[in-house]
UniProtKB/TrEMBL annotation:
<keyword id="KW-0687">Ribonucleoprotein</keyword>
<dbReference type="GO" id="GO:1990726">
    <property type="term" value="C:Lsm1-7-Pat1 complex"/>
</dbReference>
<keyword id="KW-0508">mRNA splicing</keyword>
<keyword id="KW-0694">RNA-binding</keyword>
<dbReference type="GO" id="GO:1990904">
    <property type="term" value="C:ribonucleoprotein complex"/>
</dbReference>
<dbReference type="GO" id="GO:0008380">
    <property type="term" value="P:RNA splicing"/>
</dbReference>
<dbReference type="InterPro" id="IPR001163">
    <property type="entry name" value="Sm_dom_euk/arc"/>
</dbReference>
<protein>
    <recommendedName>
        <fullName>U6 snRNA-associated Sm-like protein LSm1</fullName>
    </recommendedName>
</protein>
<dbReference type="Pfam" id="PF01423">
    <property type="entry name" value="LSM"/>
</dbReference>
<keyword id="KW-0963">Cytoplasm</keyword>
<dbReference type="GO" id="GO:0000290">
    <property type="term" value="P:deadenylation-dependent decapping of nuclear-transcribed mRNA"/>
</dbReference>
<keyword id="KW-0507">mRNA processing</keyword>
<keyword id="KW-0597">Phosphoprotein</keyword>
<dbReference type="InterPro" id="IPR044642">
    <property type="entry name" value="PTHR15588"/>
</dbReference>
<comment type="subunit">
    <text>Interacts with SLBP; interaction with SLBP occurs when histone mRNA is being rapidly degraded during the S phase. LSm subunits form a heteromer with a donut shape.</text>
</comment>
<dbReference type="GO" id="GO:0000932">
    <property type="term" value="C:P-body"/>
</dbReference>
<dbReference type="InterPro" id="IPR047575">
    <property type="entry name" value="Sm"/>
</dbReference>
Length: 136
């Protein structure tokens, strides 16, 4: 009976070991690599990792090799379907073509967050994130 209960902890990753995975991190980075190991905190070890940077329908890859990821930084983890991977309507381009627009998007996003935080603080009374007493 217990074998029919699905894993809801990091134990559910056991079927994903040695498979190509996509990991989205809290800071927005997207990593693709082979999951080699994990622990009870969902800390991950990826092998042959690339950081993929997107701009529109184009992308560029930065080789990262072995990558260790702290579990609390993982937003999304999913298996890459190797049969469908080549059918994705994205165009690989040299990294130099996607880095400048990607950085510009990041700066714009950062400015929007600063403006949003200021409005929330000044008009709605919300406190700033990351302030004193916010650490652990």
């Amino acid at each position: 009976m217990d074998s029919l209960i699905p894993f809801t902890t990091s134990g559910s990753l056991v079927d994903s070991v040695d498979k190509k995975m996509l990991v989205v991190l809290r800071d927005g980075r997207k990593l693709i690599g082979v999951l080699r190991s994990y622990d009870q905190y969902a800390n991950l070890v990826l092998e042959d990792t690339v950081e993929r940077i997107y701009h529109g329908s184009a992308y560029g890859d930065i080789q990262r090799g072995i990558f260790i990821i702290r579990g609390e930084n993982v937003v999304l983890l999913g298996e890459v379907d190797l049969d469908k991977e080549d059918n994705i309507p994205l165009t690989p381009v040299p990294l130099e073509h996607v880095i400048p627009p990607h950085r510009q998007e990041q700066e714009q996003r950062k400015m929007r967050e600063i403006i949003k935080s200021k409005v929330l603080l000044d008009e709605k009374g919300f406190s700033k994130e990351g302030g004193e007493g916010d650490g652990y």
